[in-house]
UniProtKB/TrEMBL annotation:
Compartment annotation: Endomembrane system
UniProt gene name: LOC111462580
GO cellular component: endomembrane system
Keyword match Membrane: yes
Lineage, highest ranks first: Eukaryota, Viridiplantae, Streptophyta, Embryophyta, Tracheophyta
Predominant localisation class: membrane
Domain Transmembrane protein 135 N-terminal: 313-432
Coiled-coil ranges per UniProt: none
Name recorded for this polypeptide: Uncharacterized protein LOC111462580 isoform X1
Length: 503
């Protein structure tokens, strides 16, 4: 007696197909969630409407939502908005918390010196709370808007018919949610970074494409991430010394903290590189005296080594800087590893907490070493380049800071592309800012909210890839996206298909 299909039991990995034989119901096979037709239960066929469908997956919101009532779809929108808010507020709040704690000592010292314009701890906490709320509303609104538009288009025009372009439109229309972070707050760096992420996903799609695979082949170069980091470092670190106003304020503050040099040193180094009068040498000598070092700067010197590290040797300064830089880097990377562990590995954290926490601590230690070596190598490469050519100028600074990017090799391979893209976004912004100030780019190209346009275009590409080209994502990002938006339903799970129709 052949078994007769009685239903499709939907689970995370696909559907377990049930059949009735001799009065007993048993599993006869399964189909992957990406299959358009199930050989066991007939999922996708015209008689699917007669089969009962059960679900045991609470995490697959997207596939479940296709079977929900109107109130259920509204619930899906609310859940996505809440989860988006949680991620936005959690990430920004965690970073703001460490920023406030890191600045407590500095603000106290400045206040004790009677300096005017120094923000109080209360003001710093208030600003951190406002930023946390804004970013929470931004991501919450983005998630809710995307899910709402996805549901509306699917209901009006059919899930199956709109499957290839629905997420593209929804992602673009959800992009202006960025305005909730502040109507007058520009986010060029964030927009460029998200655009870089979209470009990476698009390039991965191109690599897999039969028509474009040969064109995108160079993008598979193993050390492309390090090369991008070197390019980014050449612009970022040169600007850090020569033109800090071309860098975003928050990133400039980050470099001033981890660069480990007082503004007096940076101003003197800038004057020396540009060949300007050495009227800042006295201030540098006094600065080193406050540190217990007696330094005498020679106006006719060829290299900036004495300006950079006083009477220390280049090698000695490199080693001591790594130790001090490591202490400064640890508070930066603790939230970077801790917060994602609570979101991405939330289930594994309950089952194997020691393993996940150990990996987080190891990642924190490794990334902190990278940041300290990166900053230390910026100074020693500058010294070595100047000693080699017995002079220093803007092109040589660009060469020295290009080599600094090699420090990225310390990082884990999976994180290299993230860091290089993060820095590339800031490097591009700084480069165009410098070109505009030098008169090479007209001011008319500065659209008022170009960041929103670029961000919307990027999220359109990213969400389309999420819905249609899931293989181009790394699993950890898919986990987060699935948690917020849900897994896109296979064709046999759309409502009209389940009623035996093609929409």
């Amino acid at each position: 007696m052949s078994p007769s299909a009685v239903g499709c039991f939907v689970a995370d990995g696909g559907c377990a197909c049930l059949a009735k034989e001799n009065g007993d119901v048993r599993a006869v096979g399964n189909c992957k969630s990406s299959d358009s037709y199930c050989d066991h239960c007939g999922c996708g066929s015209a008689d699917l409407s007669s089969l009962p469908v059960f679900s045991c997956s609470s995490s697959s919101l997207w596939s479940d939502s296709t079977r929900l009532s109107e109130s259920g779809k509204l619930w899906r929108i609310l859940v996505a908005s809440a989860k988006g808010f949680t991620i936005g507020a959690g990430l920004k709040g965690g970073l703001s918390l460490f920023s406030v704690l890191a600045g407590l000592k500095r603000r106290k010292a400045l206040a004790s010196l009677g300096k005017k314009g120094v923000i109080t701890n209360r003001d710093a906490i208030s600003m951190a709370l406002k930023e946390t709320l804004r970013y929470g509303l931004f991501l919450g609104t983005f998630a809710g808007t995307f899910v709402s538009i996805d549901e509306i288009i699917g209901n009006l025009a059919g899930h199956r018919r709109t499957a290839r372009w629905r997420a593209l439109v929804a992602g673009a229309l959800a992009g202006p949610s960025m305005l909730l972070t502040g109507l007058n707050t520009q986010h060029k760096t964030l927009a460029i970074y998200i655009f870089m992420r979209a470009a990476v996903l698009a390039s991965r799609c191109g690599i897999e494409s039969k028509r474009l695979g040969h064109i995108c082949k160079p993008l598979t170069w193993s050390y492309g991430d390090i090369f991008l980091m070197c390019l980014s470092s050449s612009q970022i670190l040169s600007a850090y010394v020569l033109k800090q106003d071309s860098l975003p304020p928050s990133f400039r503050s980050f470099l001033n903290t981890h660069g480990g040099k007082d503004t007096v040193i940076l101003e003197g180094l800038k004057s020396f590189i540009l060949g300007m009068p050495s009227n800042k040498f006295n201030a540098i000598e006094k600065y080193y005296q406050t540190k217990g070092a007696h330094v005498k700067l020679d106006p006719g010197m060829k290299t900036p080594c004495t300006i950079i590290h006083g009477n220390q040797s280049c090698g000695g300064h490199f080693l001591s800087f790594i130790i001090e830089g490591y202490k400064r880097a640890l508070p930066v990377y603790l939230p970077v590893y801790l917060i994602p562990a609570l979101i991405v590995h939330r289930q594994g954290l309950m089952n194997r907490p020691y393993e996940i926490l150990a990996r987080g601590l190891l990642g924190t230690a490794r990334s902190s070493l990278f940041l300290s070596v990166y900053c230390a190598s910026a100074w020693i490469w500058t010294c070595l380049t100047a000693r080699t050519f017995q002079k220093i100028n803007v092109p040589l600074v660009a060469v020295a800071t290009f080599l600094t990017g090699l420090a990225l090799a310390i990082e884990k391979k999976s994180r290299r592309i993230e860091i290089s893209l993060y820095c590339l976004a800031r490097g591009i912004e700084s480069f165009f800012s410098c070109m505009t100030d030098l008169g090479y780019l007209p001011q008319s190209l500065n659209f008022k909210r170009a960041d929103v346009i670029v961000f919307s275009l990027s999220t359109s590409i990213i969400m389309h890839c999420y819905a249609q080209e899931r293989a181009v994502f790394r699993s950890k990002y898919l986990n987060v996206l699935d948690w917020v938006f849900g897994v896109p339903p296979p064709p046999c799970e759309t409502p009209r298909c389940k009623n035996g129709k093609q929409d």
